[in-house]
Design a protein that fits this description.
By secondary structure, the chain is an alpha/beta fold. It contains 13 helices and 10 strands. The strands form 2 sheets. The protein has an 8-stranded parallel sheet, with helices on one face. A two-stranded antiparallel ribbon has the order 1-2. Helix 1 crosses helix 2.
Length: about 350
């Protein structure tokens, strides 16, 4: 089977399944950095050429940079050039009011150095609270970096229409918006997906498998509550509460299991295929630390959902009340259940001098 691709912008092809990096950033279980970095080559060779990371995913830009640098030395620049990296720029909440333009560009320069590339393929911008500081001025710095050749394309993440429309003329400067979108979380369908599609802004969807909840592992399982060491499981267990009671979630898994059996694939393949088939979706981001589940990930491209499959899924979704409201609306409430588990000041670490850089 061949991995589907999508042209996010002219000269910017991506694989429609993107290898996610959040799971490599700590707080998600043990990470064997050397093994995870080595396994990146298997994804590339299988056709999953696009990797997602962020400046605030501790150590992940460096891991991908080590992979690219090693690949360049062993197999040449043409092979290394097949790797497309999407990173993010997320200033600390505590610095929004006073962060300087030079500091924004310094973060870009740091990502270039970490990733061992001359140009960042995509920088996805996020500002924790657009009412604090001057996010538009910060975005102008990113546009200037694009003019200098430091950035090829710009996107945003975790915003709905109101926030996204602040940047550029109705999104004219953007090629993508990264949002949480899955069978358990369809908030992107409350307006953003249609708005973005009309402006040729591709949806890059994370949470596709809800941190692993949309797998056989949880089929028939009792409700575990919230006693997890893995922070992403806490995050997505909260989403299940919004989606509907645990019993409705189990109905969904049972339905997906039956569809998967019909097509000879696994639940994750069906769940990912459903997302890829939604209007406006450019790609789905799947968090995989290692290559051992790569064959199951590739099953996504071996399944075609038919009308009967979709009707069975829709029958369950019709009984699921939420989550509702705008994209990232629940998470934006820093005092609420979803917001309290977030970490808001990860860009500066004790060994990181970027935010002490003089204004440029």
């Amino acid at each position: 089977m061949s991995v589907e691709t999508f042209d996010l912008a002219p000269g910017h092809p991506i694989s429609r399944v993107i290898k996610g990096g959040w799971q490599l950033a700590g707080d998600h279980g043990e990470v064997r950095a050397e093994a995870a970095t080595r396994d990146m080559e298997a994804f590339l060779d299988a056709g999953i050429t696009t990797f997602d990371c962020a400046d605030i995913y501790t150590g992940v830009e460096e891991m991908i940079g080590t992979f690219i640098g090693d690949l360049r030395r062993r197999r040449g620049a043409s092979v290394a050039g097949r790797v497309t990296v999407h990173t993010k720029l997320v200033p600390d909440l505590g610095r929004l009011a006073d962060i300087r333009p030079g500091e924004i560009e310094a973060i870009v320069d740091r990502s270039l150095k970490r990733l061992q590339v001359e140009t960042l393929h995509l920088v996805q911008f996020f500002w924790w609270d657009v009412a604090v500081g001057d996010p538009v001025a910060a975005f102008e710095v990113l546009k200037a970096c694009r003019e200098k050749g430091k950035i090829r394309n710009l996107g945003v993440t975790n915003w709905d229409i109101a926030e996204t429309a602040l940047f550029g003329a109705e999104g004219a400067d953007l090629v993508s918006t990264q949002v949480q979108y899955s069978l358990l979380d369809r908030r992107a369908e409350n307006g953003l997906a249609d708005w973005a599609m009309a402006r040729e802004i591709g949806l890059l969807c994370y949470g596709t498998l809800a941190g692993g909840f949309l797998t056989e592992r949880w089929l028939g399982a009792e409700d575990p509550g919230f006693q997890f060491e893995n922070r992403s499981l806490v995050k997505y267990r909260l989403i299940i509460d919004e989606f509907g009671p645990w019993a409705v979630f189990q109905r969904l898994l049972e339905t997906l299991h039956a569809i998967a059996g019909k097509h000879g694939v696994t639940i994750p393949a069906v769940a990912t295929r459903w997302v890829l088939d939604r209007p406006g979706v450019a790609a789905a981001i799947v968090g995989a630390r290692y290559a051992r589940h790569l064959p199951k990930t590739l099953e996504t491209f071996a399944v075609t959902l038919d009308a009967e499959d979709r009707a069975a899924i829709d029958a369950v979704l019709d009984d699921a009340p939420g989550p509702g409201g705008p994209v990232y609306g629940l998470e934006r409430d820093r005092t609420g259940r979803h917001g309290r588990i977030m970490k808001y000041n990860l860009n500066t670490r004790p060994d990181d001098a970027v935010l002490g850089t003089a204004d440029g």
